[in-house]
Give the backbone structure.
Amino acid sequence: MNRIELKSLLADSALGTPAGRIVRTLSARGSMSAAQLARHTGLAKSTISTTLSELRRTNMVVETGIELDGGVGRPATTLTLNPEAGTCIGILIGQSEIQVIVADVSHRVLSDQTVQLEPDYSPEHATDLVRGLIAEAYSQQWRSQDGLLGVGIAVGGPVNPVTSRVMRGGVPKWTGVSLHEHFAPMFEAPILADNESNCSAIAEMTWGAAQGHEDFIVYTLDMGVGGAIVSGGNVLRGVAGAAGEFGHVVIDPHGPLCRCGNRGCLEVYASFRTALVEAETELGRRLHITDVVRLAMSGDETCRRLIRQAGEAGGRGLGLIGSVFNPSLVVVSGRLATAGDLLMQPLIESFERFSLVKREDVPPSAQTRVVPSAFTDNGACMGAVGLVLRNHGQALSLAH
Amino acid sequence: MNRIELKSLLADSALGTPAGRIVRTLSARGSMSAAQLARHTGLAKSTISTTLSELRRTNMVVETGIELDGGVGRPATTLTLNPEAGTCIGILIGQSEIQVIVADVSHRVLSDQTVQLEPDYSPEHATDLVRGLIAEAYSQQWRSQDGLLGVGIAVGGPVNPVTSRVMRGGVPKWTGVSLHEHFAPMFEAPILADNESNCSAIAEMTWGAAQGHEDFIVYTLDMGVGGAIVSGGNVLRGVAGAAGEFGHVVIDPHGPLCRCGNRGCLEVYASFRTALVEAETELGRRLHITDVVRLAMSGDETCRRLIRQAGEAGGRGLGLIGSVFNPSLVVVSGRLATAGDLLMQPLIESFERFSLVKREDVPPSAQTRVVPSAFTDNGACMGAVGLVLRNHGQALSLAH
């Protein structure tokens, strides 16, 4: 086994071969049993068996353990790509933070570091930080970057899918920066970029609350309101990269001005921006969303009320989005979702009220499930890692 | 060639064979050149050539003419399935009409008949009518129904995708009727059913304004407001069959009651229902939407104003939907769309105003195109024919 072989097995040209399909599936999904691989790739069990023998002989695929496969209680060996076969880097360029995760191709996280910054930090400063964090992560693991498969970048704002250029309305100082051009000199590996919400969707379907789902909605409630649309296992990007920008549907044309320039956007009502100011005023000190959630969970009435109101407003927006898609699953993401039932209960009640299809009118199989995210942040940086694991070798098709 | 062979070539099991892929593509798309078939199926030109020779030898595929293939000006022979290989029936169960179209598998319409009815017509009455219209269509063409490939049914309202049962909120007397059970005794062929808007989407991508597009939105402005979402060439149906019900997104929670039971739905503002009453009052006589469109186009100021207002309200709703999807293409359907620029101009202006991504901020390739439908009605009955042509042999996957 060598790394060049892994890259060639992940290339589009290898998709027609059983080995290519198995390797791509393991890269996207992490660990799987032979039976699960057969179901997922559609290959015959005999083909799976022969190909896995060869992939194990060359050490491309390794055993990771035994797990119960489904409900029948028969234990099965689970397999992953060899952790030594390659690494991926995920970078989050957030409103006031930089996060860097290094993981290997067996989906094991090797390093996860976050640095808080002032909101107007410069791309140059961020780049220096990222370079340092990555060097540190690899040296601590005694690994070289030779096996780097790709770099995924999650950005707190819209990204043009063709040019990878950061668009207006996201992280202030990054507007107009081409992520490919900016980061290319640093890495000898493909760079894939998408907005934070789309990356969160990849994290949810790979490791989170949407595992096994090919069609679902991510709905993010935080200082902004956003989301993502997943259809047939693909995150929809939109003709200008703005699909899933749920925060900017206009609720009231005569409402307050939104930071996007329109009036009365959903975000004006359902983001936690003004609620946070109210909490700070009432409690007399500076607070983060996470503080408000913690205080609410320990019984603070002001914080509980503010989260309930955010749930009600968020549910109205979700009702609107639900009526458009009638989705089978909605994953509620963002830091507000960590409040659990304090948020979810008013949100689901309000969602139900503003939905076209009422829960009581349809059988359980036709009801929309609304569940909180599996991540305590929004998982976007893990999603940036997933962007590489799922799309390596398909970089060109992503860019168009 | 015989008909059993056509059905077997359209079955899922034949999808792995070059002949199966070519026949399915021709069934879905109508006529194509060999070069187009190669691009579309991904098969090698040599495979296309060998397989087409065999399909032409058995008379399954026939030449239909010569056309210019693309911009290079080189003429190419176009091919279709043999018109004698089979027929399809499309049935529209509308609010106050029944329409029946019979077409052959080369996409030629053999018969197209519409009967106007009172809105509370019974399913039994409709069934008798449908039976008569179909018998007449076949006898006029000197054809038997032996080669009937399938029956597509478009319904003016939501249909449960699993049970094919007509849901609340559509054609009054049909609520609760299972279309499979109701029509199965009449035909010895599979029955496929979907709502009117989803069928319109199939018509637009097969014969209309969305030809060649795999991702687009249909937005219907008529006595109701509706639409459809097409992603990756598939019409999204939603967990309860209610995807694309754009008319029932709640615009104002304190607004007037909607027929769906919620308040302030988009349909209350953007459908032509109340506008039609206003037109009738001002002009002192009973009118259909088509009358109002005709009067507006010949200069009547009242009718022009009412269509302009419908465009403005419709554009606001479309802005909302556009912000959710950021689609590359929107096809505006329904009888209001036949008013052309009288509707489209205020609609596009209002869409632009309520959209997150402004036209001036992005290059032309990243702009959303909003175009009127190619059909003077909404094309739903043709779409029901397309439902069969595109999905024959996949009936089971459609039903789940």
